[in-house]
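Problem: given the chain below (372 residues), write out its structure.
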Amino acid sequence: MLPTVKINSYQFLVLVILFTIGTSILVIPSALAANAKQDAWIAAILGMGIGLLIVWLFTKIGLWFPNLTYIQVNKTLFGKWIGNIFSLLFIFMTFLYTAILLYYSGSFLTIHVMPNTPMAATNILFAIILVMAIRLGLETIARSAEIFIAIFFILFFILVVFIAPEVEFKNIQPVLEIDINKIFQSSLPLIVVSSLNTISLLMIFPAFINRPSSAKKHFLIGNLIGGLIVTIITILCILVLGSDMTALQMFPSYELAKKINIGNFVTRIEAMMAALWIICLYFKMVIYFYAAVFGLAQMFQLKDYRPLTYPLGMIVVILSLVIFPNNLEQSVYDTTIDIYFSLTICLLLPLLMVVVYAIRKKQLQKLRKHRN
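Solution.
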């Protein structure tokens, strides 16, 4: 039997917040500003609203089968063979995204923080603590997230207060100059990264939460809080850097932190922005890797998922080093293939689940009663 654990609703809320923010806090402002220009903040709000509807759909799917993970729901709804195919697609997606996030962390650290350090070294070190977290289990991950969320909000508050004097409201004008269709298209990266990919959390919700009914509310609230933080960062980037500079920068919020200057005394504290991002990136990576490892163990009905962590950890390091030849390729992937891939796995398949559940609802209810 695979180990079963339970976390409380607040711990799940914290995990949702950190997952929702994830890479968004550093890279999404640029993606939003590329097309929406100074209306990027409107695209962020629109993306947040649409994202909440998607998360609501995920909560409904999860609560149909409160004792099952996403992998088990696939098997229940679609049968063994088709269910396993869909589960493999989900596992491949979460494993691939683990490698991509590891690439992000290595790329960022070697460009901005430790330029003389090989990317392989940073990725290996990051992967070690990633594997450690998965082996220690979901409860340990959730408890550590409770500690780091406090650090995150303290650093975030300091960032907002210190950057406030640099705000120029002329940078956000004129409002609604961009066509609404462009604004909607610009919001797609945020919807994908912050909401669609939260389907990975169905490996935790509601099966491993002690009060699933209240966790539904926390799922939505966590996604809302994460979306608000990304929106605030986007607004600050536009107000301080301007829309053109925000769109041109690979990590605009990191450049934002460089603008902090309080009396020529408090300056160049961009390491604080790096810390914010690393915290969120790490926990998002942990959830992706947990979903991939635990999902694979469930699909093959293994007694324990931990033996998979070492070989998969080594593979994810190698993949992170070869997945993109350079940052330009990574940028092209983010704005093209990644969006369609996530829309297929994280939206099309859940909608198919809704249709199949509607058709098989009575049959599934009878089966559940028979098991009880």
